[in-house]
Design goal:
This protein is mainly α and 177 residues long. The chain contains seven helices and no strands.
Protein backbone atom coordinates (compact mmCIF):
# COMPACT_ATOMS: atom_id res chain seq x y z
CA UNK A 1 0.00 0.00 0.00
CA UNK A 2 1.30 3.45 -0.84
CA UNK A 3 2.20 5.77 2.07
CA UNK A 4 -0.40 8.40 1.08
CA UNK A 5 -3.18 5.81 0.91
CA UNK A 6 -2.14 4.37 4.28
CA UNK A 7 -2.21 7.85 5.87
CA UNK A 8 -5.64 8.52 4.43
CA UNK A 9 -7.00 5.25 5.84
CA UNK A 10 -5.53 6.00 9.29
CA UNK A 11 -7.14 9.47 9.29
CA UNK A 12 -10.49 8.05 8.18
CA UNK A 13 -10.43 5.37 10.87
CA UNK A 14 -9.47 7.80 13.61
CA UNK A 15 -12.46 9.97 12.70
CA UNK A 16 -14.76 6.96 12.98
CA UNK A 17 -13.67 6.09 16.52
CA UNK A 18 -16.26 7.30 19.02
CA UNK A 19 -15.28 9.92 21.61
CA UNK A 20 -15.65 7.42 24.48
CA UNK A 21 -12.99 5.17 22.94
CA UNK A 22 -10.25 7.16 24.67
CA UNK A 23 -11.80 6.37 28.04
CA UNK A 24 -9.77 3.97 30.16
CA UNK A 25 -10.71 0.30 30.16
CA UNK A 26 -14.02 0.09 32.02
CA UNK A 27 -12.93 -2.73 34.34
CA UNK A 28 -9.56 -1.21 35.26
CA UNK A 29 -9.60 -0.07 38.91
CA UNK A 30 -8.79 3.60 39.39
CA UNK A 31 -7.70 3.17 43.00
CA UNK A 32 -4.00 2.29 43.48
CA UNK A 33 -3.49 -1.42 44.24
CA UNK A 34 -2.20 -0.76 47.77
CA UNK A 35 -5.39 1.18 48.64
CA UNK A 36 -7.93 -0.99 46.79
CA UNK A 37 -8.97 -3.32 49.65
CA UNK A 38 -9.55 -0.39 52.00
CA UNK A 39 -11.50 1.52 49.34
CA UNK A 40 -13.70 -1.48 48.53
CA UNK A 41 -14.58 -1.83 52.22
CA UNK A 42 -16.07 1.68 52.38
CA UNK A 43 -19.86 1.95 52.33
CA UNK A 44 -22.13 4.96 52.23
CA UNK A 45 -23.57 6.13 55.54
CA UNK A 46 -26.41 7.85 53.66
CA UNK A 47 -29.76 6.21 53.10
CA UNK A 48 -31.03 5.98 49.52
CA UNK A 49 -33.37 8.94 49.57
CA UNK A 50 -34.68 11.74 47.35
CA UNK A 51 -33.03 14.22 49.72
CA UNK A 52 -29.57 12.68 49.29
CA UNK A 53 -30.03 12.59 45.49
CA UNK A 54 -31.14 16.25 45.45
CA UNK A 55 -28.14 17.26 47.58
CA UNK A 56 -25.84 15.28 45.28
CA UNK A 57 -27.32 16.93 42.19
CA UNK A 58 -26.79 20.41 43.65
CA UNK A 59 -23.17 19.56 44.47
CA UNK A 60 -22.52 17.81 41.12
CA UNK A 61 -23.71 20.87 39.20
CA UNK A 62 -22.38 23.41 41.71
CA UNK A 63 -19.45 23.40 44.09
CA UNK A 64 -18.29 19.92 43.05
CA UNK A 65 -18.00 21.10 39.43
CA UNK A 66 -18.40 17.47 38.27
CA UNK A 67 -20.45 18.52 35.23
CA UNK A 68 -17.43 20.31 33.73
CA UNK A 69 -15.81 16.98 32.89
CA UNK A 70 -18.58 14.39 33.21
CA UNK A 71 -21.36 16.48 31.62
CA UNK A 72 -24.80 17.53 32.83
CA UNK A 73 -26.18 14.09 31.94
CA UNK A 74 -23.13 12.16 33.23
CA UNK A 75 -22.06 10.99 29.78
CA UNK A 76 -18.40 12.00 30.14
CA UNK A 77 -18.96 14.85 27.68
CA UNK A 78 -18.68 18.02 29.76
CA UNK A 79 -17.33 21.32 28.41
CA UNK A 80 -13.71 20.44 29.21
CA UNK A 81 -13.89 16.69 28.46
CA UNK A 82 -12.22 17.06 25.04
CA UNK A 83 -9.11 18.43 26.77
CA UNK A 84 -8.67 15.34 28.96
CA UNK A 85 -6.82 12.13 28.14
CA UNK A 86 -8.10 9.68 29.11
CA UNK A 87 -11.68 10.91 28.74
CA UNK A 88 -13.77 11.39 31.87
CA UNK A 89 -15.88 8.44 33.00
CA UNK A 90 -19.30 7.99 31.43
CA UNK A 91 -21.70 7.42 34.34
CA UNK A 92 -24.43 6.33 31.92
CA UNK A 93 -22.45 3.23 30.94
CA UNK A 94 -23.67 0.14 32.78
CA UNK A 95 -20.14 -1.24 32.97
CA UNK A 96 -19.01 1.67 35.11
CA UNK A 97 -21.41 0.70 37.88
CA UNK A 98 -20.98 -3.04 37.52
CA UNK A 99 -17.21 -3.16 37.92
CA UNK A 100 -16.53 -1.12 41.01
CA UNK A 101 -17.83 -0.63 44.51
CA UNK A 102 -19.24 2.58 45.92
CA UNK A 103 -16.14 2.72 48.14
CA UNK A 104 -13.90 2.81 45.07
CA UNK A 105 -15.91 5.67 43.60
CA UNK A 106 -15.77 7.51 46.93
CA UNK A 107 -12.00 7.03 47.12
CA UNK A 108 -11.46 8.42 43.61
CA UNK A 109 -13.64 11.49 44.21
CA UNK A 110 -11.89 12.17 47.50
CA UNK A 111 -8.30 11.43 46.42
CA UNK A 112 -8.26 11.77 42.64
CA UNK A 113 -7.13 9.27 40.05
CA UNK A 114 -3.44 9.10 39.13
CA UNK A 115 -2.82 9.30 35.39
CA UNK A 116 -6.13 11.06 34.67
CA UNK A 117 -7.53 14.57 34.93
CA UNK A 118 -9.53 13.58 38.01
CA UNK A 119 -8.34 15.65 40.95
CA UNK A 120 -9.12 14.87 44.56
CA UNK A 121 -11.87 16.86 46.28
CA UNK A 122 -10.91 16.10 49.90
CA UNK A 123 -10.24 19.78 50.58
CA UNK A 124 -13.42 21.04 48.92
CA UNK A 125 -16.11 18.49 49.83
CA UNK A 126 -16.95 16.68 53.04
CA UNK A 127 -17.25 12.90 53.09
CA UNK A 128 -21.04 13.21 53.36
CA UNK A 129 -21.13 15.51 50.33
CA UNK A 130 -19.08 13.02 48.31
CA UNK A 131 -21.50 10.22 49.25
CA UNK A 132 -24.43 12.43 48.17
CA UNK A 133 -22.77 13.05 44.79
CA UNK A 134 -22.43 9.28 44.34
CA UNK A 135 -26.16 8.90 45.09
CA UNK A 136 -26.91 11.39 42.28
CA UNK A 137 -24.39 9.89 39.85
CA UNK A 138 -26.16 6.53 40.18
CA UNK A 139 -29.26 8.09 38.62
CA UNK A 140 -27.40 8.43 35.31
CA UNK A 141 -27.28 4.65 34.88
CA UNK A 142 -31.05 4.20 34.58
CA UNK A 143 -32.12 0.55 34.47
CA UNK A 144 -28.52 -0.52 33.83
CA UNK A 145 -27.28 0.61 37.21
CA UNK A 146 -26.07 -1.16 40.34
CA UNK A 147 -27.58 -4.48 41.28
CA UNK A 148 -27.67 -5.89 37.75
CA UNK A 149 -25.13 -8.58 38.65
CA UNK A 150 -27.02 -9.77 41.73
CA UNK A 151 -26.32 -9.50 45.45
CA UNK A 152 -22.73 -9.08 46.52
CA UNK A 153 -21.35 -7.69 43.26
CA UNK A 154 -20.87 -4.27 41.76
CA UNK A 155 -21.43 -1.21 43.99
CA UNK A 156 -20.87 -3.36 47.04
CA UNK A 157 -23.93 -5.49 46.40
CA UNK A 158 -26.33 -2.60 46.93
CA UNK A 159 -29.37 -2.43 44.74
CA UNK A 160 -29.97 1.25 44.22
CA UNK A 161 -33.48 2.58 44.36
CA UNK A 162 -34.14 5.95 42.81
CA UNK A 163 -35.76 8.98 44.42
CA UNK A 164 -39.26 7.51 44.01
CA UNK A 165 -38.30 3.94 44.84
CA UNK A 166 -37.81 2.79 41.23
CA UNK A 167 -34.89 0.51 40.51
CA UNK A 168 -31.78 2.06 39.01
CA UNK A 169 -32.27 5.75 39.51
CA UNK A 170 -34.17 8.72 38.32
CA UNK A 171 -37.82 8.78 37.33
CA UNK A 172 -37.51 12.12 35.57
CA UNK A 173 -38.94 14.31 38.32
CA UNK A 174 -36.25 16.28 40.08
CA UNK A 175 -33.53 14.69 37.96
CA UNK A 176 -31.62 15.73 34.90
CA UNK A 177 -32.69 12.73 32.81
Amino acid sequence: MKPKMFSLIVVMLSCAIPAWAAERQMMQPLVPADKLADARALTSPLPDSPEAVAQGKALYNGRGTCFNCHGKEGGGDGPVADQLDPSPRNFQHHGFWRHRTEGEIFWVIKNGSPGTGMIGFAGQLTDEEIWAIIQYERSFAGAHGPGMMGPGSGMGGKEHRGPRGGRGGCDGEGCSR
